[in-house]
Amino acid sequence: MLSFRDNKILFDQKRCCQCGVCLASCEYGALKRIWLDNGLFRIESDAEKCTKCLKCLKTCPAPMLPDILVTEKDWQAIQQVYLGNSVDDNVRYAASSGGVARALLHGALKTDLCQAAYAVLEADAYPWATGGYFTGESNDTRIANSKYLPVPMCENLLPRESGTLIVTGTHCQLLAVDAFYKNSDVKLIKIGLLCKQQKTLDFSRFIAKRLGVVDYRNTPINFRGEGWPGTMTIQEKKMLWEKAAALPFGKRLWSVPGCRFCNHPLGSVADVTLADPWNIVDSEWKGMTMILVRTLTGQMLLETCRTLIELKSIEPEKAKRSVDWQGIQLERERTDYYCGRLMSKPKRLKFKMGELQRSMYEALLISIRFPEPIYKILNHLPYWG
Question: Crossing angle of helices 100-110/296-304, nearest 10°?
């Protein structure tokens, strides 16, 4: 997160959500990204180039995150819930969970619902992905699967005066794109990707250690794909995604610090939110996506792309259990703790103990490769944070 004090731009790593929109907002080249060993990046400001226009602060989503809360009204606003998948079996199988995002992007371009798309695309260098535009003519095939490491997705945003742009992203990324185009006549169609926590590179390092891979940083990692829930692949060595994700996500290990301040995994400004169908589908070898339609624009997008997607309506209550709605409500308390807000001493102690527990897990699991049964035992131990 950026702030302005003592007549200069300051960077707070603990609040940064790693979206990269500040880099796109600075037209004077005063901001520079520096990669860290754990895969996070920090932002440095060049005082000589900085004009104090503060555009970088105005587009940064981090200050907004703690106060955007998920409420029951958010769920009541959801108009339709579906299970869906791409009709192209190759796309469906290769995607993270059904290929719906790719189908919506290409469908919107094919039908001229928008003039361009912006999404995370595969790249040739670390972090092996970057944000980028593509059009119906380019029909970009480099659309990336889910990436569980920091990708400054918004750093390549460019000014546009008008037209319609379809964009995919997590809650913080969509807020950043919204802010970037706030003072233009650009109309946005926003596809939200349900996200409860992004990971640092240490998550990949942990899985690489379990797989016996040493050079994990200098090779692309396929985090998902090969059906649903999918398989994580590093240098042709594979681990089922449920197995790879269990400890790191269940115990909130190696999460991007800024994620602690986010309370809205559905994406507060999304027209459609895409999610994994946990607890609805046991497994689907071809792939499956849960689709939450949140606005009329989202419904129109789905209807426009109907020939590219197979859809099946499901009960909203099933979707509510799938996203762990009750757990999402409890995220507020964690955010209150990290914001230093008033809370009872027992609750504050609980989160403090959770921090210590998490730090111990992270240090231990990165240092030592345990027999696989140990990871199962650790996964079932209580977590206090």
Answer: 80
